[in-house]
Write a structure and sequence with these properties.
The protein is an alpha/beta fold. It contains eleven helices and 16 strands. The structure holds inosinic acid and magnesium ion. Magnesium ion binds near residues 12 and 247.
Length: about 325
Amino acid sequence: MPCTVIVGAFWGDEGKGKVISYLALKDKLDFCVRTGSVNAAHTVWMEGKRYALHIVPAAFLYGKCRLLIAAGANVHVAKFFEELELTKVHGRMSIDQMASIIEEKHSVQDKASTVNKGIGTTGWGVGPAVEERARRTAKLARDIPELKPYLADATTEINDGIDAGKKVILEGTQGFMLSLFHGTYPYVTSRDTGAAAICSEAGVGPTRVDNVLIVYKSFITRVGAGPLPGEITMEEAKKRGWFETAAGTGRNRRSAPFDFDLARKNAKINGATQAALTKLDCMFPECRSAQKYDDLSKDAKKFIEEIEKRTEVPVVLIGTGPEALDIIDRR
Ligand code: IMP
Ligand code: MG
């Protein structure tokens, strides 16, 4: 696995946090690098406790993993300190000195903007913060005295780690359909969310990546406005066991069935070499907590085989429950 990029296939909330927390424990991950910003929440369940992480990398629950915030990321200082306390990762968590800072004023601008209201942004202010960075007036992590003890040259550390054959995960956020360049514009987030952009934010060249793991959920969800092909009603979603609320904002998620054509297209654009499929137990309740492929029902296997056939990517990890270790590992 040396360097693996984790990318969301659809509109976010595919379960990247769960997949990363599993890989951290199972593979004894050396480095996990968080990209993006606080608009994304990654959910991690460990021994009945739920974490919805906006900054700390999802690999935190493996105690020897070095946790880094990418140079291209956007840091919310108060949230950083709050999560540092929550996860107790002092001493192994650092922020690249070049990461930019998202401030309270950005959230105020985000919430006041009629354009952003129409898009249904998370309200964290990531769009306005990114605008400021593009104008070159944004503060960087190195400008914030409180962050001094946590600053690092993460880019160099990651690349040295790759040279030394360490196991590295570049933690993408949100989903490919929310990409500013490739998603359902203008109903998108303020950055490219694809595998190439994740590498760019972390400062890792494309030839240094070994694996791109695309994360699919067994059905599709979306929060905020914008097209969602095949969308079903909330009543129908509840009946099917697909109804979810957002980990970050608590908003109701809209939902739709798995889209094989979109799964194929996005696997190709992101150069996926492997896939994870999460929430199989929501589609096929008889598969709950299964640990072996052979224990899956015939219908569940048929669904997985169809995904592999249509995307031409092997489904190597299958989520069968919320806990980090509720996974069938076929690697
Ligand atoms: P923003 O990223 O807050 O500007 O919001 C832009 C769009 O992306 C809105 O539809 C949000 O609901 C959506 N979005 C942003 N971050 C996430 C995420 O982590 N998961 C799911 N949707 C997200
Ligand atoms: Mg999320």
